[in-house]
Write a structure and sequence with these properties.
With 375 residues, this protein is α/β, with parallel strands linked by helices. The chain has 15 helices and 15 strands.
């Protein structure tokens, strides 16, 4: 199978679908690899490194889409990329379709096979291809939030860890999953006053044991959340419903109860955001202010640390990518039901239940898609 790696074209997106080392693995499996010239520049990987790994270099994205069957990316395809997709293409990347009806309609129209990293599962019920980027985003949320708290950035002028004799910032993390855990780790490491809210008592027990008094762990109710945000300096939204639109946990009205200059960091913005006033921003212009509350809603946060993010992502996407290339998508998904849950769109049909429900689309099951594709 011919594997194609376009250059990411989303604003300030420096990651790349395959590292040279991952490309070498595909070549070792007897697969061809074609990479757009300059695709790896953002992680410090020159074209020569891909050539040394056995890949060929294409002059532009059109050549990659023309030559390749399996398209490996990082971010969702942009409109110009979606226009290049064909029915014989397999797209393997993050998609985040629930809040993006236009992308969904374009992928349906392309009739391509579209496998989303963020809905692939594992035996524990986790999301292994989302996890490393959630780790990165959780840690970055505290860096970004600390910067946004500076007065020159519109924030309250509060130092996250305080100094002797002055209180540290109060950080409220909504959600105790991978993003929330990593955000809390960073915030406690900087000596902030940290509170984590979650509704899963098993998660709360794990967090309590891990932080051992260095963070307050609370069961999340509307009343508890309202009380915590009223005195927060920084709030990190870290909720996730796999494949579905994120729930709105802080309303526009709720902003009025917060301290002027407080900061909201919405890590769930890829799935529509968990604050009513959230809207996607870019690394060019990452923040905006609503009712004196600073919002940071960058939709590709891990792109800021592209080298770390790309290698972390490739560590988990490579095995499934090799299975798809070696076996074909039908056999690979038949052999691994967890990978099968990554199939979001096939031959003009939505195949993920959460996406279909969020967008009001009819659904074809993954098993039905595999069976029909084999006819």
């Amino acid at each position: 199978m011919r594997v194609g790696v376009p250059k990411e074209i989303k604003n300030h997106e420096y990651r790349v679908g395959l590292t040279p080392e991952s490309g070498c693995e595909f070549v070792a499996h007897g697969q061809g690899v074609v990479v757009v010239s300059g695709a790896g520049r953002g992680i410090g990987a020159a074209d020569d490194a891909y050539v040394a790994a056995g890949a060929s270099i294409a002059p532009d994205a059109s050549a990659v889409f023309d030559q390749a069957e399996l398209i490996v990316k990082v971010k969702e395809p942009q409109p110009v990329e979606r226009a290049r997709l064909r029915p014989d293409h397999i797209l393997y990347t993050y998609l985040h379709l629930a809040p993006d009806p236009q992308q969904t309609d374009d992928l349906i129209a392309s009739k391509a096979t579209c496998i989303a990293y963020e809905t692939v599962t594992d035996a524990t019920g986790g999301l292994p291809l989302l996890k490393p980027m959630s780790q990165v985003a959780g840690r970055l949320s505290i860096q970004a939030g600390a910067k946004a708290l500076e007065k020159a950035q519109g924030g309250r002028g509060v130092l996250l860890g305080g100094v002797p004799g002055v209180r540290p910032a109060k950080v409220v993390v909504i959600g105790g999953g991978v993003v929330g855990f990593n955000a809390a780790q960073m915030a406690t490491g900087l000596h902030a006053d940290v509170t984590i809210l979650d509704r899963d008592v098993n998660v709360l027990e794990r967090l309590e044991a891990h932080f051992d008094g260095r963070a307050t762990v609370l069961f999340s109710t509307k009343a508890a959340l309202a009380e915590e945000i009223a005195t927060a300096d920084l709030v990190v939204g870290a909720v996730l419903i796999p494949g579905a639109t994120a729930p709105k946990l802080i309303s526009r009205e709720g902003l009025g109860t917060m301290q002027s200059g407080a900061v909201l960091v919405d890590v769930a913005i890829d799935q529509g955001g968990c604050f009513e006033t959230s809207k996607p921003t870019t690394h060019d212009d990452p923040t905006y202010v609503v009712d004196d509350i600073v919002h940071y809603c960058v939709a590709n946060m891990p792109g800021a640390v592209a080298r770390t993010s790309t290698y972390a992502l490739n560590n988990v996407t490579l095995p499934h990518g090799l299975a798809i290339a070696d076996k074909g998508w039908q056999q690979a998904l038949s052999d691994n039901a967890h990978l099968g849950r990554g199939l979001n769109v096939w031959n003009g049909h939505v195949t993920n239940e959460a996406v279909a429900e969020s967008l009001g689309k009819p659904i074809m099951t993954v098993n039905e898609a595999i069976a029909q594709a084999d006819l």
